[in-house]
Amino acid sequence: MNAQNFINALPFAKALGMRLDSLGDGHAEISMPWDARFVGDPVTGVIHGGAVSALMDTCGGAAVLSYPGAQTTATIDLRIDYMRAAKPGARLVARAECYHVTRNVAFVRATAHDGGDAPLASATGAFTFTGQEPTS
């Protein structure tokens, strides 16, 4: 399964309006628009952290699937450090890189931004995958 089909097959990713912006050899960039349905604090209009988490998780999985030889993937572990709230109304962008691969596990780093200078969040994760072991 390629990364765009992976995103299209995830109902939650579709509901969040995720779009694959860039993909290649262990790197992915996925964005999603601000949407009032996903606001976690109605007073400030800030997007819920769960939507940011889903964006980063999906981007990490896409990075794994873009690695040569990978066919399917699933998240084993994902740690997210939230650094600040997203700007209300801003498009969110996640970038992920698959930086190390073993026979069954791929390790990923990711960041999320809203166009500001500082990241909203950073993540590290481990993803299981099937397919031919990539050569690096």
Automatic annotation (TrEMBL):
InterPro entries: HotDog_dom_sf, PAAI_dom, Thioestr_dom. Its EC number is 3.1.2.28. It comes from the Bacteria. Keywords: Hydrolase. Residues 45-118 form the Thioesterase domain. One of its GO terms (cellular component) is cytosol. GO terms for molecular function: 1,4-dihydroxy-2-naphthoyl-CoA thioesterase activity. PANTHER family: 1,4-DIHYDROXY-2-NAPHTHOYL-COA THIOESTERASE 1, BLR7284 PROTEIN. NCBIfam families: unchar_dom_1. This is 1,4-dihydroxy-2-naphthoyl-CoA hydrolase. It comes from Roseinatronobacter ekhonensis.
